[in-house]
């Protein structure tokens, strides 16, 4: 049954309502309030937004302890096994909710990295979860953190999408920008809904940001502390991405042990540039010679650059009202590599200078350098 009494009923506890109703009939019985809440990327469910549940057991009234009910909600949550992002609102994190996403489907063949690098990242992120019992039996922790760093456009987010596609059945929680303020909440959810993957994108943006914090330390330190707060047996993987590893070095050095693997996602070498052009041009009949020539001409560019290169060739052919040819690819290369397109190349993450590298104390120093469409959302 529901509770009448206007908007103030949303700000009263049950005990307040009972006490006040003895003096003033301001909370009459009424129909329950219902709301349509997302329970998946494409589905919603009608749920009681405000109401009273009266239970009896063996003929006697029964009160259900809210804490126990909350535990059951966690273990049977509609969020378990889903890919979600935590969002913020203009009124702060407490009024925010979640957005459901389709789990990406991205095979390893569509992630072009130097040989062995993708497997190394996948083994540390999702591979460990397949051996959780063995690790627990030998007293080893399951909680793990990995940092992916490199220039914009080299494929860090693309790599994350592949990891999420391999993590079928795991709960994935995505945080970026202002939603990183909800890291403590995300860590609690990840523990309750494990096995889980928590993705923290562009952590360098909060390396010195104190606007969301609760003290003098940067928000990034709170992120790392939240990671450390989980039990060692928690089957939770944290994936951090950054374009500026130098911004994170101090924080990671002062909070050691949170990230146990750092991997550079490098600019593609010649062989990877050829494969990228083949991948993005798989529906276009470019000749092998044209692809080789384009790859040779575009040294120092990113994966995003290769995709834009193919797109420009296709657009040029459409404007010419002609089939896409090797000439269109060659012209697109000349156009994008021209001095006048320096800003465009910069926006695509390409350039002659790489990102600042890790210093001697940086986790992962010594390692060989080699967006998700939302469908439904609801409040928590």
Quick structural gist:
It is built from 13 helices and 14 strands. With 380 residues, it is an alpha/beta fold.
| Helix-strand pattern | EHEEEEEHEEHHEHEHEHEHEHHHHHE
Task: Tell me the overall shape.
Answer: globular
Q: Helical element count?
A: 13
CATH homologous superfamily classification of the largest domain: P-loop containing nucleotide triphosphate hydrolases
In round numbers, the mean pLDDT is: 77
Range of strand content: 15-25%
Uncertain runs:
65-71, 354-371
Distance between the termini: 22 Å
CATH class of the largest domain: Alpha Beta
Q: What spatial order of strands do you see in the largest sheet? A: 13-9-12-11-10-7-8-14
Helix content: 25-40%
Report the strand count: 14
CATH topology-level name of the largest domain: Rossmann fold
Give structural attributes.
380 residues; alpha/beta; Helicase, Ruva Protein, domain 3; two-stranded antiparallel sheet; 13 helices; 36% helix
Please, could you describe this protein's structure?
By secondary structure, the chain is α/β, with parallel strands linked by helices. The chain has three domains: 2-64, no CATH class; 83-267 and 360-379, Rossmann fold (3-Layer(aba) Sandwich), CATH 3.40.50; 270-347, Helicase, Ruva Protein, domain 3. The protein is 36% helix and 18% strand. Helix 11 crosses helix 12 (326-337). The two termini are 22 Å apart.
């Amino acid at each position: 049954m529901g509770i009448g009494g206007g908007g103030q009923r949303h700000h009263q506890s049950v005990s307040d309502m009972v006490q006040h109703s003895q003096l003033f009939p301001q909370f009459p019985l009424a129909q329950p309030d219902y709301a349509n809440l997302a329970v998946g990327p494409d589905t919603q469910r009608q749920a009681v937004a405000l109401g009273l549940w009266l239970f009896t057991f063996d003929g006697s009234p029964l009160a259900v302890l809210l804490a126990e009910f909350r535990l059951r909600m966690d273990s049977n949550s509609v969020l378990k096994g889903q890919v979600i992002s935590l969002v913020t609102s203009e009124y702060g994190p407490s009024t925010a909710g979640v957005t459901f996403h389709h789990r990406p489907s991205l095979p390893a063949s569509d992630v072009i990295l130097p040989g062995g690098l993708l497997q190394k990242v996948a083994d540390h992120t999702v591979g460990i979860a397949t051996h959780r019992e063995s690790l627990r039996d030998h007293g080893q922790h399951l909680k793990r953190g990995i940092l992916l760093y490199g220039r914009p456009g080299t494929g860090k987010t693309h790599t994350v999408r592949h990891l999420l596609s391999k993590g079928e059945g795991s709960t994935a929680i995505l945080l970026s920008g202002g939603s990183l303020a909800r890291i403590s909440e995300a860590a609690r959810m990840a523990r309750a809904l494990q096995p889980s993957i928590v993705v923290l994108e562009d952590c360098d943006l909060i390396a010195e940001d104190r606007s969301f914090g609760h003290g003098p330390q940067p928000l990034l330190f709170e992120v790392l502390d939240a990671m450390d707060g989980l039990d060692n047996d928690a089957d939770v993987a944290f994936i951090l991405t950054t374009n500026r590893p130098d911004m994170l070095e101090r924080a990671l050095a002062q909070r050691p042990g949170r990230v146990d693997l750092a991997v550079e996602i490098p600019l593609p070498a010649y062989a990877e540039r050829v494969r990228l052009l083949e991948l993005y041009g798989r529906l276009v009949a470019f000749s092998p010679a044209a692809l080789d020539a384009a790859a040779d001409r575009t040294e120092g560019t990113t994966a995003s650059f290769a995709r834009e290169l193919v797109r420009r060739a296709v657009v040029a052919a459409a404007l010419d009202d002609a089939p896409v040819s090797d000439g269109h690819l060659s012209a697109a290369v000349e156009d994008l590599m021209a001095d006048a397109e320096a800003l465009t190349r910069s926006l695509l993450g390409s350039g002659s200078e790489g990102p600042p590298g890790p210093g001697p104390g940086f986790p992962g120093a010594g390692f060989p350098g080699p967006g998700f469409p939302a469908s439904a959302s609801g409040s928590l």
